[in-house]
């Protein structure tokens, strides 16, 4: 626990460039990370390096907009930036700590995401820790093809770069669920549910913004009409004040044009 906490490092999102997500090779990101207290990281980013890096970068930018009101750049836990990927045993042991130390699980799910075993392992760990579904933010990158890939999710078909890593990770999952089939069913269900929920939230937010814009325009129109009415009234008063008045009989007001 102490060792994992000591190795917990986060990356400010504004230190990430699109080029960093185009390859899993070292691009100097680790040097841009900073030590952080457990629980202080905004999101644990789970993704596949084989998916579109530009699309992932764009999605992260969209996700970060909610932090504008706080006037700060969010922090993320990103694999090649935050850990030494050459030591799988240490990383595997610390994964629960790293996941629990982040406020949400940000799933950047492209076409290859369900086929990468490390991604599967991160989902497994999140679920085994009793991760709250509201803490899972699923962002689809692959459109129809990506949704179909999620629907076909099967941990037994997921791959690792190294065969020994694959065998070790699958053994951990099987030990936790007894069989991969229940795990597959749970993951498919949660990802599908969260996707629908996120879409509804996005639609709701769009509708809310549209309503605010409608109210703003309506208020602007009312202010314009009031201004026009006030202007007309002022103009009428000005005309009346310019008309000379001549003496008249008691109780009668006669304008000069009537004389």
Can you describe what's shown?
The chain is built from 8 helices and 8 strands. Helix 5 packs parallel to helix 7 (163-177). Strand 7 (245-246) and strand 8 form a beta hairpin. The longest helix is centred in the C-terminal third of the chain and has 63 residues, at 180-242. The protein has helices spanning 2-6, 53-64, 79-82, 88-100, 117-128, 143-151, 163-177, 180-242, and strands at 9-12, 34-35, 43-47, 75-77, 105-109, 136-140, 245-246, 254-255. The chain is α/β, with parallel strands linked by helices and 259 residues long. It folds into 2 domains: 2-207, Rossmann fold (3-Layer(aba) Sandwich); 212-244. It has a 6-stranded mixed beta sheet. The N and C termini lie far apart (103 Å).
List the helices and strands and how they pair.
Blueprint: H1 2-6, E1 9-12, E2 34-35, E3 43-47, H2 53-64, E4 75-77, H3 79-82, H4 88-100, E5 105-109, H5 117-128, E6 136-140, H6 143-151, H7 163-177, H8 180-242, E7 245-246, E8 254-255
Parallel strand pairs: 3-4, 3-5, 5-6
Antiparallel strand pairs: 1-2, 1-4, 7-8
């Amino acid at each position: 626990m102490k060792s994992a906490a000591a190795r917990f490092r986060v990356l400010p999102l504004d230190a990430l460039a699109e080029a960093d997500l185009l390859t899993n090779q070292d691009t100097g990101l680790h040097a841009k990370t900073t030590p952080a207290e457990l629980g202080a990281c905004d999101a644990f980013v789970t993704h596949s390096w084989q998916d579109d890096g530009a699309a992932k970068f764009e999605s992260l930018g969209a996700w970060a907009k909610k932090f504008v009101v706080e006037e700060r750049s969010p922090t993320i836990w990103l694999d090649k930036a935050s850990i030494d990927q050459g030591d799988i045993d240490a990383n595997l042991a610390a994964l629960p700590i790293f996941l629990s130390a982040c406020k949400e699980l940000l799933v950047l799910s492209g076409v290859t995401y369900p086929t990468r075993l490390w991604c599967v392992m991160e989902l497994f760990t999140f679920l085994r820790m009793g991760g709250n579904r509201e803490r899972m933010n699923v962002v689809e990158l692959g459109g129809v093809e990506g949704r179909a890939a999620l629907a076909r999710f099967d941990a037994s078909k997921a791959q690792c770069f190294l065969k020994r890593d694959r065998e070790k990770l699958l053994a951990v999952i099987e030990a936790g669920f007894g069989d991969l089939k229940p795990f597959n069913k749970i993951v498919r269900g949660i990802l599908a549910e969260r996707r629908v929920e996120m879409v509804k939230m996005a639609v709701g937010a769009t509708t809310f913004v549209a309503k605010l814009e409608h109210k703003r325009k309506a208020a602007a129109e009312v202010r314009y009409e009031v201004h026009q009415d006030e202007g007309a009234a002022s103009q009428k008063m000005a005309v009346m004040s310019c008309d000379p008045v001549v003496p008249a009989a008691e109780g009668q007001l006669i304008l000069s044009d009537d004389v």
